[in-house]
Known about the structure:
The chain has helices spanning 2-17, 20-50, 55-58, 62-71, 73-107, 109-122, 127-138, 141-165, 170-178, 183-219, 226-235, 241-269, 274-278. The chain is mainly α. The protein has two domains: 1-59, no CATH class; 63-278, Orthogonal Bundle (MetI-like fold). The longest helix is centred in the C-terminal third of the chain and has 37 residues, at 183-219.
Amino acid sequence: MTGQRAGETAGAAGRRTGPQRPRSRVLVPVVVTCAVLAAWEVVARLWAHAAPLNAPSRLPAPTRVLSALAGGWSGYQVALLATLRGALLGLAVGIVVAALVSIASASARWIEETVYPYLVASQMVPTIILAPIVLAVVKNGTVARVTVAAFISFFVIAINMTKGLRSVEPDQVVLLRSVRARPWQYYTKLRLPASLPFFFAGLKVAAPLAVVGEIVVELTGAQHGLGLLMLTSLDFGPSQVYSFWAAVFLTAALGYALYLLAVVLERRLTPWQPEFRDR
């Protein structure tokens, strides 16, 4: 009886604390972010009081940045949508290329050993150098955006997805062979589902990277986007410092939003993972 009561008590405590855990996972980052912004605001205002001429251009107050963002929202919205469109298109292309490379590499070891040295070498080229080269070759800002965003995002997905495709247990392969599964069924029934957790691990890294690639192209000569807005704000000097930081804030928010999108998709499409089942 004592053990049964203890079990019931533990179960009741688990039921009471269970709903609070997801709430704390959201509340803690929000509180930390607000604390960082509050500290930033205090330091910025103290610095502005001590050095009124130089401080705003070096450490602007977040409230001033948000005020500039609200005052020119229509222009920021156009730039944000342009950057978002290019990042999503580039990420989509990167996912397709990464999936094709991963499937080919997982199907034959010699393909992986042949292709991957070139892929690794390609990632040694800095994006800040690659972007103007691509823009000069294709002569099209939209194509350059998509190309660089895809290039910077596909590698990490390809690495993770290839590992996922190779992570199946030998017993599972034997089981499919015993029922005379067709070659394509090995992928649809076994390899692709096994690779999904690895794919999303790469996607959560690649999604913000696609925004980085998009911004780099915009800084080197695109016609629209947050990167171009940063560049034009710098041309006007201290008078547009808050506009520059507003574009930086939007860029960071966009990258984090794409990361959260990858997290939501992972939870929806891979609910069998232990961490999701426990929650």
